[in-house]
Amino acid sequence: MADSRRGKLRLLATFAVLAIVAAAIAMGGRVYDKVLDLRYGATLPPAPGPAPRDAVQAKVQDLDYLAHLPDVDRSFSPAAAARFRERIRALRAAAPTLDDARFFLEVAAAVALSGNAHTNVDAVSWRAKLASAPVRFAWFPEGLFVVRAMAGHEDLLGARVLSVDGRTPEALRREAAAYFAGTQAYVRTASPLLLESPPALHVLHPDASPAHLDLRVEGAAGGAREVRLDAVPPARAPKASKPGRILSPVPLADEAPGEWRALLHPAAPIPSLREPRHVTHAETLPGGTLYLHLWRVRDDSGERLGDRIAAALGAADAPPWRRIVLDLRFDAGGDYPDAYDALRSIPGRLASDGRLLILTDETTFSAAIIAAVLARHFAGPRATVVGSGPGDRLEFWAEGIPARLPNSGIEIGVSTGYHDWSHGCRELRCWWPNFYYGVAGGDLAPGIPVRWRFADYRRGVDTVVQRALE
Question: 370 pLDDT exceeds 80?
Fold first, then answer.
C-alpha cells in the first residue's frame, strides 16, 4: 500500500513539474528562466564579517564560508558531506601553516570529495591563482605532448613529455585525481592544469621547485633531453580554456598577439579545429557528407545555435545528405534546449540510407553529452557513436550558480540539478526541463572505438574524422 501511494505521488509530481515547465516555456524566456532560478539558483550567501586582519584570518574566513557548500550543493552524499566538513575543520586548524599554493590545492581536494565533475574548483581559478610553465600539454594515446608554447620555446612544440620533475606524466595524472572530482576521463582532461604548474607540483612533491619545471622530453626524431622552464606568473598566462580547445591552432581569445605559438599552422586544414570562436563550424566533405562541429551548445555572441545548425543542414527540399558527421568533441557545453529542435531535425535531412556519425571523446562534457544522447535518440539505428567515451557519466549533478571564496577569489562550481540521460529523469531532484525534453539514452559507448593519434595530429589529420568517413 505504501509503495502504491508513493508511486501515485511520484506520478502526480511528474505531471505537476511537466505542467510548470510547459507553461514556463509557453510564456517565454524570462518566465522560464525565473522558474529555474527559483528552483536551482541557490548559491552560498554573501560572506558576513569584517575584512581580515591578516593572511591567516583571510584563509580562515574563506574556509568558514566554504564549509556551507554541502548545504547548497546537492551532489554531496551524506558520507561525502561529512568527510568534506571534517576536511574543512582540519584545514581551519592548519591555516597558519598554509601558503597560498597549498591552500589552493587543499581547497580543491576538499571540493573534489563531492565526486561530481561539475562540483570542482573552476579551471579558470587554477590558471588565475597558480603560476604555470610557458608550455601547454595535451594527452594523446601515445602520451603527453607539448602543443602550445610561448615565444622562445617553440623548439618544444611536438615534443613528448617523458617526465615532469623526475616523475612520469602518468604517475602525476593519477595523483591529480585527488584534486578533480569526476571520472578518470575527466581527470585526464583536467590534469594538465596541475602538471603545468610548478607551485602546484611543489605542494605534492617538496623536492620539486615552485619556480620552474624540469622536463625530460623526446623530439620527433628521437633522443631525450632535459629542459628547465621558468614559471610564468598568472598575469602573463592565458586563461584556462575548455579541454581540447588548445589543440586548435587558432589563437586563444586572451593570448597576447605573437606571444604564443601552436604546433599546427593556423591554416591547418583540419575541419574539427576550425572556427572555435563561433558556436558551430560546418563544411561539406567528399561523398555527400556534411561535417558539423558544435563548439558550444548555446546561443552565443549574437549567433543562434539552432539557426546555425539549420543553415548547415539546408532547406527541407534540398538534396539529403548521405552522411552527417556531428562532432561533439572540445565542446564548451551550455544550455541543451537551445539545440533541441535542431538536433531533432537532423534525421529528416538524411537520405533514406543515410548515416549519422556522432563523434565523442573525453572532452565531450555536460551539455555536449546531452546533445550526443539526443542526436542518437532521434536518429535511432541510423546513428553510430565514433571515438571514445565522454568525459563524464550520463548521471550527474549540474546547474547552480558558482561560488567565489570572499578573500582568495577561488571560484567553485555549485550543482543543484540532477541529470540522468541513461535511464531518463523523472524525480523532483532532476533538472526540471528534463521532464519535458529528457530521454533514456542508455550509454554512449562508441560503436566504432578510435582515438586521435598524435602522429596524425602533427601532420594535420584527424584520426577520428578519418575513421568516421571510412
Answer: yes
Q: What is the pTM of this model?
A: 0.92
Range of the domain at 313: 271-394+443-469
Residue 385 CB contacts under 8 Å (≥ 6 apart), including other chains: 358, 359, 360, 372, 376, 444, 445, 446, 447, 448
CATH number at residue 462: 3.90.226.10
Quick check: 54 and 83 in contact, CB under 8 A? no
pLDDT at 4: 56
Asked if residue 303 and residue 335 are part of one domain, the reply reads yes
pLDDT band (50, 70, 90) for residue 207: very high
Q: Is-contact 111 181, C-beta < 8 A? A: yes
Report d(CA 360, CA 369) in Å as an integer: 8
Query: Per the domain annotation, does 33 fall within a domain?
Result: no
- Collect all residues with Cβ–Cβ distance below 8 Å to 403 and sequence separation of at least 6: 43, 44, 65, 66, 69, 72, 411, 412, 414
Quick one: which of 168, 195, 192, 191 has its CA closest to 180?
Answer: 191
- What is the tally of structural domains in the chain? 2
pLDDT computed for residue 444 by the predictor: 96
Judge contact between 377 and 437, C-beta under 8 A.
no
CB 227 within 8 A of CB 156: yes
> Are 206 and 167 part of one and the same domain?
yes
Q: Is 437 part of any domain?
A: no
Please write the tens of the pLDDT for every residue from 45-90.
877 778 999 999 999 999 999 999 999 999 999 999 999 999 999 9
Residue corresponding to grid cell 539505428: 381
Task: Please report whether residue 332 resides in a domain.
Answer: yes
Q: What is the pLDDT of residue 12?
A: 55
Q: Compute the distance between CA of residue 309 and CA of residue 328 in angstroms, rounded to an integer.
A: 13
pLDDT at res. 43 = 83
376/347 same-domain check: yes
Phi, psi (5° rounding) for residue 250?
-65, 130
Are 247 and 291 within one domain? no
* Residue pair 358/450 in contact by the 8 Å Cβ criterion: no
Domain presence at residue 133: yes
Q: For residue 23, what pLDDT is reported?
A: 60
CATH code of 146's domain: 2.30.42.10
